[in-house]
């Protein structure tokens, strides 16, 4: 009798257990990402690492950051499947790379490229106290021409 | 509604697949596009022949009027939510209003080359 009860309840128990575990994992990764993006001025979630990006889109973002000499923290989503899905859920954005400035999701590769071209990126960086290297170079040029 | 036939467009036509068509139809009807290009860039990546995994879309619509870039992209992502959850994992977006499109050079650069992050 005991075993019948156990058998009939086990699936429910097991499913609930699995679901709870998943929800807990979700909450945990969300918390972790929240901390990462709030503790750093600029964060890039990418495929690979800045010295060896493993996707052309991630590489493009790395190159833009390099041009502006932005100090940033990078996270390789290929090294952590939990993070790869977690970051998409966190920002409600389906693709990698993802750039965060001051805890806020700014965009992926297309948006970064456009912000770079329009000069908007220089302004956004200024807001968080980062002076773009392009701006410094610009000023040096003007100084020379004086 | 007029669609300009350009290289990118005709290239994607030659390998028109189910997903390419679905993307085109969904964007057309949801955004009443004035110009639309759905370019399958999967061949640039380490995926099987005729795969439909990497796309670039050029979307010109009045519905983008007054929307910041990120909101335009979110709108497109949202319309293509099913595709993005089922196999499409790269989507490059050019989203412009008709005015912006007309005053641009109308040349859309192709996406950066793959660096082997997928399938290796």
TrEMBL record, chain A:
Matches recorded under Gene3D superfamilies: Glutaredoxin
PROSITE patterns to which the protein is assigned, alphabetical: GLUTAREDOXIN_2 (PS51354)
Keywords linked to the UniProt accession: 2Fe-2S, Iron, Iron-sulfur, Metal-binding, Redox-active center
Residues spanning the signal sequence: none
Domain Glutaredoxin positions: 42-106
GO terms assigned for molecular function: 2 iron, 2 sulfur cluster binding; metal ion binding
One GO cellular component term: mitochondrial matrix
Pfam families: Glutaredoxin (PF00462)
UniProt keyword Transport, yes or no: no
Keyword Metal-binding (UniProt): yes
PANTHER family the UniProt entry points to: GLUTAREDOXIN FAMILY MEMBER, GLUTAREDOXIN-RELATED PROTEIN 5, MITOCHONDRIAL
NCBIfam families (alphabetical): Grx4 family monothiol glutaredoxin
Protein name: Glutaredoxin-related protein 5, mitochondrial
Species annotation: Vanessa tameamea
TrEMBL record, chain B:
Pfam families assigned to the protein according to its UniProt record, in alphabetical order: BolA
A Gene Ontology term for the protein's cellular component: mitochondrion
SUPFAM superfamilies: BolA-like
InterPro entries on file: BolA, BolA-like_sf, BolA/IbaG_stress_morph_reg
Gene3D superfamilies assigned: BolA-like
Family to which this protein belongs: Belongs to the BolA/IbaG family.
Protein name, UniProt field: BolA-like protein DDB_G0274169 isoform X1
Name of the gene this protein is made from: LOC113392209
């Amino acid at each position: 009798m005991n075993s019948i009860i156990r058998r009939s309840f086990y699936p429910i128990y097991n499913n609930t257990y699995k679901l709870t575990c998943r929800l807990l994992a979700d909450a945990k990764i969300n918390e972790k990402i929240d901390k990462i993006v709030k503790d750093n001025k600029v964060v890039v979630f990418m495929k690979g690492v800045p010295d060896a990006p493993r996707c052309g889109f991630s590489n493009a973002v790395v190159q833009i950051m390099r041009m502006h000499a932005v100090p940033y923290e990078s996270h390789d989503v290929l090294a952590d499947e939990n993070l790869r899905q977690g970051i998409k859920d966190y920002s409600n954005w389906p693709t990698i790379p993802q750039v965060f400035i001051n805890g806020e999701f700014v965009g992926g590769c297309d948006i970064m490229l456009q912000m770079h071209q329009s000069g908007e990126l220089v302004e956004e960086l200024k807001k968080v106290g980062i002076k773009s290297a392009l701006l410094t170079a610009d000023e040096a040029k003007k100084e020379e021409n004086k | 509604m007029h669609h300009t036939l350009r290289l990118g467009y005709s290239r994607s036509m030659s390998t028109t697949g189910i997903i390419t068509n679905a993307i085109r139809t969904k964007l057309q009807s949801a955004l009443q596009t004035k110009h639309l290009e759905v370019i399958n860039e999967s061949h640039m990546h380490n995926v099987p022949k005729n795969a439909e995994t990497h796309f670039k879309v050029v979307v010109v619509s009045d519905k983008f009027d007054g929307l910041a870039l990120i909101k335009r992209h979110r709108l497109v992502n949202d319309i293509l939510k099913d595709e993005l959850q089922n196999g499409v994992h790269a989507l490059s977006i050019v989203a412009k209003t008709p005015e912006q499109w007309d005053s641009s050079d109308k040349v859309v650069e192709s996406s950066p080359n793959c660096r082997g992050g997928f399938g290796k």
